[in-house]
Amino acid sequence: MGDLYALDFDGVLCDSCGESSLSAVKAAKVRWPNLFDGVDSSLEDWIVDQMYTVRPVVETGYENLLLVRLLLEMKIPSVRKSSVAEGLTVEGILDDWFKIKPVIMAEWDEKKDPLIDLFGKVRDEWIDNDLAGWIGTNRLYPGVPDALKFASSKLYIVTTKQSRFADALLRELAGVAIPLERIYGLGTGPKVEVLKKLQNMPEHQGLALHFVEDRIATLKNVIKEPELNNWNLYLGDWGYNTQKEREEAGGIPRIHLLQLCDFNEKLK
User: Fold this and answer.
1) Fewest CB atoms within 10 A around its CB: which of 24, 192, 226, 268?
2) Integer angstrom CA distances of residue 127 from 18, 94, 115, 168
3) What is the per-residue pLDDT across 33-90, written as a single tens digit (0 to 9) for each?
4) Among residues 79, 101, 132, which one ends one of the domains?
5) Are 125 and 144 found together in one domain?
6) Residue 73 sits in which domain range?
7) Distance, first Cα to last Cα, the chain
8) Which domain-ending residue is among 132, 165, 199?
9) Are 19 and 122 in contact (CB under 8 A)?
10) Are 184 and 193 in contact (CB under 8 A)?
11) Count of CB atoms within 10 A of residue 97's CB?
């Protein structure tokens, strides 16, 4: 018997909020140049600060672009094109993002795939031009590099991040090379389908299955799938979630609330 750990990346292994927020501002300037004409560095700094607060709502990276623009429209009425921005607060975004997102995408006439492509392109350009600067806006959580290096369990990364970025950060920040075939990134399908695939692999039969996430919504999706009943589910309390979500997780028997120090010990 052994253990298999399927690990989310952003909010479990890596605090990438600084990088994703700065990349989103860069990409938003490319996507909507007219809106950002009069935006000075102090307003950009304010947007990046607010992004740390609203980060728990982000499921896939491109949503950062939407949040950057929405924060701008909340702050500057003259550029406002969305019906929801007036009077909206960051707390309102945290509470209602699921409802807000389709409204603003329709009002701004935006589609998901072009935003995903743009976000990836902006990151690639940043990496090509300034790898050290890009790496420096990310950090692995304390103890994670050693936990990964000395893990006795079988490890997989299951993330909505594009695989090449997760791979680059693991190599540069942890000195760890997880084989690319063990990194299930954006485009590999919903996480519930990846977990089904992992549990059904012949080489994983008999292993205890563990899935570590920082989004309670993702864990609730797993619980809805009877086929995934054998997975032990953990919500990392150090990741991108709110006190309200951690309290909710405490009332769901299948979800174990996990602290970072315990997580690092489990991997070893």
Assistant:
1) 226
2) 15, 30, 18, 10
3) 999 988 999 999 999 999 999 999 999 999 999 999 999 999 999 999 999 999 999 9
4) 132
5) no
6) 17-132
7) 15
8) 132
9) no
10) no
11) 19
